[in-house]
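Render this sequence as a predicted structure.
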Amino acid sequence: MTDAGHDETALIDRARAGDRDAQETLVRRHLGEVFDLAWRIIGDRDVAQDAAQEAIISALGALHRFRGDASFRTWLLRITVNAAKTQFRRQSRRREVKLSLALDVRTDELDPAAETMLRAEAGRVAGLLGQLPPKQRMAVVLRVNRGLSYAEVGEILDCSEGAARVNYHLGVKRLRELVQ
């Protein structure tokens, strides 16, 4: 086990024992990724904040049930996906593209015209992402934005690796159709 893995395991053990500092450290380590994933699934920062908070609270409350079969990160991201799905169902069915989604594009070395076009296209794709069925949307977000393997995506979405692969490919195919 790597030092980082050992450190995380020790931190989890301390958090399970009620150590508030260990719990806060776990939250600080993972909150950014939890929020980012929820935001990419939901598409609304305010609702994503609620989902991220719900996921963190649920994870800390269920820490005693974490068996270590998967990494803590994978386990937490699965809780996040479930919290985001719950929040997504609660929010209204409006499908507007948030300007902040369009601004989440790296444009380090582009001229202003190319940067503007890229941001506009990113906003358009982000809006179209909301039109995908939930499992396809989540599979695309987890693969593209989180860089997870199909096995990890399947574990988080509670499906097989093959089903995760199918959902990802169907989602990408549908996005291509919608973009045209």
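Summary. Residues 8 and 43 are 30 Å apart (CA to CA). Confidence is low (pLDDT under 50) at residues 92-103.
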